[in-house]
Amino acid sequence: MSEIYQRENPHRLYRDKKNAVLAGVCAGIADYFGFNRKGVRVAVVLTFLFPPFIPFVIVSYIVLAIVIPVKPQELYVDNDKANFWRGVSNAPAEVFSALSHRFKSLNLRLEKMEAYVTSKEFSIDRELGRGPGRSRS
Questions:
Q1: Which residues, in sequence order, are CB contacts of 30 under 8 Å at separation 6+?
Q2: Per-residue confidence of the chain (137 residues) as pLDDT tens digits?
Q3: Which of 5, 12, 87, 130 could bridge to 125 as Cys pair (CB 3.0-4.6 Å)?
Q4: Does residue 105 fall inside a structural domain?
Q5: How many domains does the chain have?
């Protein structure tokens, strides 16, 4: 399959067998949404306190254990990539707002450099052999 058709965003719902207690469903859900694994497990166990939910939870867990694929070993290069893709999937507005802020700050730095390079001070410093990294003594 060509690279064009491959999925760019590797962040999707997987069963996390590495951190699993039973089948890794709770660990996978926690990883996907960025929750604490213990918190998700406690929430599932708490649903067993309400008898009407017990069959629903058991059937849902079994179905999810069958349907959700196992998480590949080398899915992300590092934690920064994992957090970025989790943010893109769960809160894209925040991620793109942060990226927009970074690009605006880079653009401001570039404008300052352009203003200096096109200024008379730069041409005088250049004629005198002084530069931004050289001393002015």
A1: 16, 36, 37, 39, 40
A2: 445 445 565 667 888 888 888 888 898 888 888 788 899 999 999 988 888 888 998 999 999 999 988 877 776 667 777 667 667 666 677 777 877 888 899 999 999 988 888 888 887 877 777 766 555 54
A3: 130
A4: no
A5: 1
| Nearest-10 crossing angle of helices 120-127, 92-117 | 60
Which of 2, 16, 1, 5 is closest to 75 using CA atoms?
A: 16
Which secondary-structure segment (H or E) carries 93? helix 92-117
CA distances from 124 to 53, 134, 135 (A): 79, 13, 14
Q: Please report whether residue 103 resides in a domain.
A: no
Per the structure, the complete domain to which residue 46 belongs is given by: 3-90
The DSSP symbol for 69 reads P
| Cα separation values, 6 from 3, 86, 113, Å | 5, 18, 39
